Amino acid sequence: MIKKVIVIGYQPLTDKVVNDFYFSILNANGFQVEYWDLSMIYFPNVLHDLLVDPRIIKIRDKDELEVKLAACQIKECFFVLHITYEYRVVDLFRLLTKYGCTISFFARGALPVSNRKSTWVEKILKSVNPGTLARFVRNKYAGVLKRIGYIKPYDIVFSAGNFGYLTVGIAADIEKQKSKIIAINSHDYDTALENLSEKPMIDGKFCVFLDEYLPLHPDFKLLGIKSVDANEYYATINRFFNVIEEKYQLPIVIAAHPKAEMYKTKNPFNGRKVVFGKTSQLTRDCEFVLAHISTSQSYAVLNKKPVLTLTTDAIKKVMPQYDYFIAHFSVKLKSVLVNIDHHSSSEIKVNRVNEQVYDAYLYDYLTSVESERTRTSEIFLNTLKEYHGG
């Protein structure tokens, strides 16, 4: 019988994690909840605590982690990993395997990817880039460890849509074969259901930009991913916004990324309205959506809103893989893709929504026939109450 839910992450606890993993609901239903913060192990002296919460267990090294696991009543604990599987966390997953922990993953936020194989040029570039080659080899090794059983697959994968399981990490096909897959909804799907009755917050017609905090997103720095120059990016996108506002006679409202701390003291969008925490409502009420590859485009799908997909020369040059995903996402939604460094007002158009395409996206990435009428929190609670292992 499950009595305790232990969420394991390698970043300090945030309000979003508390909400996304239903801490309050779990507590209210009699389950103990702990958050094991492994940031000192994986990102020492980089990340700082954001919350004071008695449910936080700060673990400083791998020896302390093993002591904690050894002290658990394992059969009464249900582990939720807020960490994707890859080479750097092999030791963690090995310990969870060694102690026979029941492990699970919320596979939400998948984005369309293609099966395109690397070109010979990309293969050469990978082979001459020591860092890229090393990551490639290590991740292949991590996949082999899962395939031979040295690392156990997740016992349960809570999957949003047909392809949610792909967010598990390296060798996700093993989970597809061996894990119990339980259908849930994406965050955006559940949020959209909850916000159906809320009144519009913007008077008049407008379009919305789904901000990704692209030049300054802290996760890029954390993972060593080079991003575009902030000054260049904001100057370019504001010039394009001027064109859109002139062409369509609509103001652009910025749906701010939740980690965009800079926007709270400085508006880089030339004074345009910046709104935090209301992306669902803004997308529901807008005329059309401007975006790169934000997962928040889910709201456009749910509300049948047209999308104009944006890239730039800088994104193409500095973040070519990101640009490739943007282009593929555009194909998936049948949206118009615009390089905002090379366009004319007459060439910009917003396609009408293809409802068949949007419905296919809905069930591939956001929900399922089994879960679309049930909140994810309810599905999770029922799983915990009914789980008996195996």
The tally of domains stands at 2
Largest sheet composition: 7 strands, parallel
Unreliable runs, pLDDT <50, ≥5 residues? Answer: 114-127
The CATH architecture assignment of the largest domain turns out to be 3-Layer(aba) Sandwich
Rg to the nearest angstrom?
A: 22 Å
In the CATH hierarchy, the third-tier topology of the largest domain is known as: Rossmann fold
Number of DSSP helices? 17
CATH C-level label of the largest domain: Alpha Beta
Please give the share of residues in helix: 40-55%
Concise summary:
With 390 residues, the chain is α/β, with parallel strands linked by helices. The protein has 17 helices and 13 strands.
Task: Give an account of the 3D structure.
Helix content is 40%, strand content 15%. It contains 17 helices and 13 strands. It has a seven-stranded parallel sheet, sandwiched between helices. Strands 10-9-8-11-12-13 form a six-stranded parallel sheet. Helix 5 (90-98) links the parallel strand 4 and strand 5. The longest helix is centred in the middle third of the chain and has 19 residues, at 230-248. The model is unreliable at 114-127 (pLDDT under 50).
